Structure formats: C-alpha cells, structure tokens
Amino acid sequence: MQIRKSLESTDQAAALELDNVSLSYDNGPNVLTNLNLSLPSGSFHFLTGASGAGKTSLLKLLYLAQRPTHGSVRLFGTNVTAAARRALPAIRRKVGVVFQDFRLLDHLSAFDNVALPLRVSNAPESEIKSNVSELLSWVGLDKYMDAKPETLSGGQKQRVAIARAVVNRPRLILADEPTGNVDDAIAMRLMQLFIEMNKLGSSIIIATHNEHLVKKFGFNQLAIENHRLSELPPLGTNGERP
C-alpha cells in the first residue's frame, strides 16, 4: 500500500513525553495523577484500563484538546504545555486521531472527509485522489466513496474515521476503541492497517477494552489503574506476561 509520506522531516526526538502530568476537571479529584512516560518514535502500544480509568482523558492530553492541571506534555521534542497557541495547529497536524464518536463532517462525502488532512496540507489533487481511493478500498468502502455520513452504519463511519486519521501518515496516531463497531474480520484488517502505518514510522497508541486484540497482537501496554499509568510487557496468548 502506497501511502503519501509525511511532509514533515523525521527526527530522533521521542514521540511523546509526560513529566509529572496530572489532570482534574473543574477543581475536582485527579482523573490522572503524576504520569511519567517517554515513548520512542515508531513505537506501538495498546492503552488499557477499566471504563472510566482515564484512557480518553489521556488521549485528549496527547491530541491537545486538554491541557494538564500539573506537569508537562512534550510531542516530538516540543513542550506543548508551554507552547503558544499559534504554534499548536502545526503540531496537531502531525497527530492523527480516531474518535469514538467519529466526528465526521456530515455535509462531506466519505471521500472528502478522508481527504481533509491532505487538503489542509495542500497536497496535489491527483495525489489526494490516489491515496484516498486506495485507503477507502483498503477498509472495504470503495463502493461508498460518495456516501454522506448519515447514510453509513456505525462500523462504516468508524472505517472512514480511521482512513482520515492515517491518510497523511501522521507521526503519532491515537485511536480510541477503533475496532469497537466492526466485526472480527474487519477488526483484523484495520489492525493490519495500523501495523503498516507503524512500519512506515508512525507511533501508534490504541485504546481498547478488547483483551483478545491485546493478546493476539502482542504489543506493549500502557495500563491506567487508580489514576496512574504503567508500561507493561506484551500479554501472551495464554493471558500471562513473560
């Protein structure tokens, strides 16, 4: 699969770094407490934890929808917590996000939703047509390129959202339950797409409750428990760690 390479040069900076990060909402108790983490570029992790543990809150910090209450977040070597607002859009363009609620633009077709990141970066239309068509075919939506979101099922919307998140080969891909609305066969195909993106250099974090997925693919885990984060080795097919 030929996916357009990022317009940004790749360096050796860590994909992300958290330094004593805590997060609370409206002066309430901490949702996340004293998170410390450094993930190298090109890494692949599952993000796990019980419902309400803080997985979505952590992802919000990483795609810059939320600032930490305490501590700092660095993406690609830049302290985004301290960065000026005008600097954030360029950093956000290096991050592809798959949202649980899809966040597709209802007035645009599936094709045009996926094409958005490429159009923002002023890619040639010939390149957009080639890459978007290829990705929609990859996720099994080649017959739905002109369809508006309101005519698509939840699983089809999920696949459009995933294609949009990866089409411009972002340096970091964050996916919140990306296989939650599709059957097992499509889930495996989507996982292969994430793996291909990882081979091309994207760092991947997939938040999931699907233990079968975690066992089958054997990537390291970022586990949230009691508001804290730990990095764990892969979970084996027998459900145990080495």
Percent in helix: 25-40%
What is the number of E strands?
A: 10
Quick one: biggest sheet?
Answer: 6 strands, mixed
Report, as a whole number of angstroms, the end-to-end distance.
34 Å
Shape: globular
> How much of the polypeptide forms β-strand, as a percent range?
15-25%
Pairing-aware structural class of the strands and helices? Answer: alpha/beta
State the low-pLDDT regions, or none. Answer: 2-11
Strand order of the largest sheet: 6-7-8-3-9-10
Instruction: Round the mean pLDDT to the nearest integer and report it.
Output: 91
The total of helices stands at 7
Q: What integer value in Å does the Rg equal? A: 18 Å
Report the oligomer.
Answer: single chain
Could you give the order of the helices and strands? EEEHEEHEHHHEHEHEE
Q: What features would you describe in this structure?
A:
- It is a single chain.
- By secondary structure, the protein is of the alpha/beta class.
- The chain has seven helices and ten strands.
- The protein has a six-stranded mixed β-sheet with strand order 6-7-8-3-9-10, with helices on both faces. It has a four-stranded antiparallel β-sheet with strand order 2-1-4-5, covered by helices on one side.
- Helix 3 packs across helix 4 and helix 3 packs parallel to helix 5.
- The two termini are 34 Å apart.
- The N terminus is likely disordered.
Structural features:
242 residues, alpha/beta, six-stranded mixed beta sheet, four-stranded antiparallel beta sheet, disordered N terminus
